[in-house]
Amino acid sequence: MSYYFCIVNTRDQPTFEIELGTSKQGGDGVPRFSQEARHLNPFLMHASLDYVDDLQWQTNQMYLKRIDHFASSHISAFLTPTSTRFLLLHLPHPPNTDPTPPSQTSTSFSPYGPYTNSFPGTLTTPSLSIPNTSSSRSSIASVSGGNSIANNPTSAQTEEAIRLFFVEVFECWMKSIMSPFGGPTVGVGSPVFRSRVLAAGKKYL
Length: 205
Fold this sequence. Notes:
The longest helix has 22 residues, at 156-177. The protein is an alpha+beta fold. The protein is built from 4 helices and 5 strands.
């Protein structure tokens, strides 16, 4: 999968952004978003903030799990005690391959396919678009790797991996904002923080 991680402050302004690639199931850790997806990802993140604002009054958990999806793209959220939002967009595709390009016959301009958004609590699992490189490989992946992080963004294994990633990043973020030269509304621009986010992504995602 390819990941887009973003930290949004209480003013709905992004203070940190980074792209990650899966390091599981033979992945090389390189994100493979198309150029159109890179332009669209920030808009999907911003649109999901309304769901975070609603869910924060319905649970006492910091990890809100999967809150929104757009076709094959899913968004998970983590809410800090200071109401700073951690958002992770994950787009599944086979490791070490490019995402499936948009259909030649599709009239949609979106690199993700048709818009299939839904409200929290009524999420439906979208069909994954997998390149038809080998029918045997696809059949094996659907049987033996259906619950792996690289193949199934809605599995319990993936949810737990994302939770652990959020928790580790949260600990690093807390140390960063405690600096007298920064704060929760200041961009986390430290190279050390970025490297630790990359390390957490490689460890869990």
